[in-house]
Backbone:
């Protein structure tokens, strides 16, 4: 999203802002200031990640009273014994949760992306009756947070008997109004009408035009929407919390939350803090990999947007 | 490139469909309850009773039960701890299906569920016959009037865990009354090594309530026989006396006011910021889970300080039970399971040894082995004999409201306002009384 708006803004703002920033760059001072500001931001954003990395190498006693303090390693290295704990605890249910998260994120993310591409392209390139009205409704839907829809969703799913099945998580995740909005904005900019007209004149049908002309141009936006919806489903917490009760169906977010409740419980509780931190650490690794490996598609978007 | 991209997206989508198809298939294969048993069923021919519970090491207890019972088998699911489980139970009460046959509930929430007619009165299935097998206070907590809605499993009689090393360094004797506790708190603060005697968490909920009860506060009168009537006296003299005392300690900076059960609180429990942990009998297990290895800390246990040393009053913090739900298919069989899981020495001993439970089951509670148990964490001290057995024996039970969760939330709100200096102790409790009376009336109760 940031990419798209960035490219758009850059185009509009070039005239106005360019000269001002060039002036500022000359006398060096503000640049040091901005670097310090960025450095502070980096520290601000990296610290929790660093904490998690360090915490995943500690046992529970180390987490609360370790020699290294919260932001440095202890003398003892417990990452592998924690990992072993994840395999042993409730017969390795953590890995089942991780698998569920993958299932929900990938099916929800891919499905949401496909729908968003189709709908966004339709909105951008076809004139049909009620387009403005439908797009208005869509914009309204963007404003409604998913969390607010959880209870109505629960009631709906309950009446069709889908509560406590995987569909209760996947079906609602398939809808991404924001993804549609993003695709529409991007398709409008990146797919010139002239190009489509040329394809039509050359005899390509609408379907062929879409797959062979429009889709390649839309790739950066597709990756963006895919990444956003995968991450959104992966991190979704409230929806699975509300609609699932079978521990074998939970995604990793809700599962770990259950362990935290267990660790906080006085009577009949169990301290699982080391498993929680290690589990959380492992659960973010796939996201990091996804971001890094899809990065080139994002960067591709930058140059693609500036072609016109 | 484009073809690749589409192809891989297609594969991902296909895998997703394959995966979903597969798990949906396995769900529809058997009855959904049988599919979600966490344990293995030993005797497949015997009828099964579904159980929700979150006790530690409960898998071993279930296996023990299933191996020793031919005529009934437990199908166990961990549906989450505390509120997570209660939410799911509530949902299944609303929808009329999905509840287990037997469910672990904390004593304090029992009346929140009896008022919704979701629990079975166990007296018709022989609960009266086993009453003598359970600690008196715990049994009282699980009963309402003549009805018995649950079988007690574990309790939380309160004591005081303290750092002997910090006390010695400051030259403090172990306090036995709250007066001595305050003196010790001053002395510790004056010794100036930064530690305070303890914490008064505003989100202590049952902990705060237990402290009030020690001075004779009886916050609620409620009997499930007349479910629409409730007596509310959260601002009685006992509660005010206790809260004024703690307000004084807070104002003088003698105790901390950190929220309980946060990472910060856990750290301070083990790093010597607090010299005393006012705890229930499950507290040692909690503490040990946080800090198994700190060689410098010397933890010991002592009885909870008293208001009147001549007339000690014992209080309880936490504890859970097994109840039978109205949705149970075979209620008699379910009742048998509820009474049987921990109602034998082998099962209860597993809970005590592996799960650090403080048993309500008398044959284990009163056994010499339990009394003589030495705790390495406390330097070999027999903490049950020294502290908790007496506390358990003296506990007479309490009555909880059918909206206990709301009452605790309101209590937390008022206590927070008090420690922020917005109001004094008496005002905080009066406001609590007013808000609870209003809430009860709005909910359709007749306030006595």
Residues:
């Amino acid at each position: 999203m940031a990419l798209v708006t960035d490219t758009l803004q850059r185009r509009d703002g070039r005239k106005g802002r360019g000269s001002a920033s060039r002036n500022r760059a000359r006398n060096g001072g503000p640049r040091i200031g901005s670097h310090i500001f960025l450095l502070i931001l980096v520290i601000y954003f990296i610290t929790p990640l660093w904490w998690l990395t360090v915490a995943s190498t500690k046992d529970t006693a180390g987490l609360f009273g370790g020699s290294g303090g919260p932001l440095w390693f202890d003398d003892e290295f417990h990452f592998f014994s924690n990992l072993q704990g994840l395999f042993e605890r409730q017969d390795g249910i953590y890995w089942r949760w991780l698998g569920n998260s993958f299932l929900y994120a990938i099916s929800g993310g891919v499905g949401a992306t496909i729908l968003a591409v189709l709908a966004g392209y339709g909105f951008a390139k076809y004139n049909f009756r009620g387009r403005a009205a439908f797009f208005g409704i869509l914009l309204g839907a963007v404003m409604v947070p998913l969390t607010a829809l959880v209870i109505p969703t629960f009631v709906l799913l309950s009446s069709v008997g889908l509560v406590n099945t995987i569909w209760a998580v996947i079906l609602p995740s398939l809808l991404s109004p924001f993804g549609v909005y993003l695709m529409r904005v991007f398709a409008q900019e990146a797919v010139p009408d002239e190009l489509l007209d040329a394809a039509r004149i050359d005899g390509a049908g609408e379907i062929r035009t879409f797959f062979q002309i429009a889709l390649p141009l839309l790739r950066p936006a597709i990756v963006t929407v895919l990444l956003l919806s995968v991450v959104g489903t992966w991190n979704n917490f409230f929806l699975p919390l509300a609609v699932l009760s079978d521990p074998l169906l939970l995604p990793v977010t809700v599962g770990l939350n259950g362990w935290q409740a267990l660790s906080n419980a006085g009577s009949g509780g169990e301290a699982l803090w080391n498993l929680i931190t290690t589990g959380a650490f492992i659960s973010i690794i796939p996201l990091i990999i996804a971001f890094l490996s899809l990065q080139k598609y994002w960067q591709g978007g930058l140059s693609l947007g500036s072609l016109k | 490139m484009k073809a690749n991209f589409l192809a891989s997206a297609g594969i991902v989508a296909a895998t997703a469909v394959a995966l979903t198809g597969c798990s949906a298939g396995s769900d529809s294969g058997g009855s959904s309850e049988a599919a979600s048993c966490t344990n293995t069923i030993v005797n497949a021919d015997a009828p099964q009773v579904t159980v929700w519970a979150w006790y530690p090491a409960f898998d071993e207890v279930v296996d023990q039960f299933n191996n020793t019972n031919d005529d009934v088998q437990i199908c166990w699911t961990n549906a989450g701890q505390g509120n997570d489980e209660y939410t799911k139970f509530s949902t299944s009460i609303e929808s009329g299906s999905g509840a287990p046959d037997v469910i672990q509930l904390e004593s304090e929430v029992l009346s929140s569920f009896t008022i919704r007619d979701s629990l079975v009165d166990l007296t018709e299935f022989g609960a009266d016959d086993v009453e003598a097998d359970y600690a008196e206070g715990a049994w009282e907590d699980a009963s309402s009037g003549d009805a018995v809605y649950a079988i007690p499993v574990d309790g939380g009689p309160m004591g005081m865990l303290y750092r002997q090393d910090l006390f010695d360094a400051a030259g403090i004797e172990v306090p036995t009354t709250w007066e001595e506790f305050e003196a010790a708190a001053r002395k510790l603060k004056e010794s100036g090594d930064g530690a305070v005697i303890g914490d008064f968490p505003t989100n202590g909920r049952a902990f705060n309530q237990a402290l009030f009860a020690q001075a004779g506060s009886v916050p609620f009168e409620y009997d499930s026989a007349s479910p629409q009537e409730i007596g509310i006296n959260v601002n009685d003299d006992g509660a005010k006396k206790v809260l004024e005392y703690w307000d004084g300690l807070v104002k003088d900076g003698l105790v901390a006011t950190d929220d309980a059960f946060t990472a910060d609180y856990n750290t301070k429990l083990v790093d010597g910021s607090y010299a005393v942990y006012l705890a229930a009998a499950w507290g040692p297990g909690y503490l040990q889970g946080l800090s198994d290895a700190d060689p410098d800390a010397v933890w010991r246990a002592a009885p909870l300080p008293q208001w009147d040393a001549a007339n000690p009053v014992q209080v309880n913090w936490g504890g859970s039970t097994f109840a039978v739900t109205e949705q149970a298919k075979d209620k008699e069989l379910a009742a048998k399971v509820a009474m049987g899981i921990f109602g034998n020495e082998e099962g209860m001993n597993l809970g005590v040894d592996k799960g650090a439970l403080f048993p309500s089951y008398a044959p284990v509670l009163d056994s010499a082995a339990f009394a003589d148990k030495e705790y390495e964490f406390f330097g070999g001290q027999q903490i049950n004999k020294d502290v908790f057995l007496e506390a358990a024996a003296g506990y007479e039970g309490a009555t909880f409201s059918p909206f206990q969760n709301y009452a605790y939330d309101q209590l937390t709100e008022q206590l927070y306002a008090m420690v922020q200096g917005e109001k004094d102790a008496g005002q905080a409790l009066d406001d609590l009384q007013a808000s609870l009376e209003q809430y009860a009336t709005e909910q359709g109760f007749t306030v006595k």
Summary: The CA atoms of residues 269 and 277 of chain B lie 7 Å apart. Chain B is about 45% helix and 15% strand.
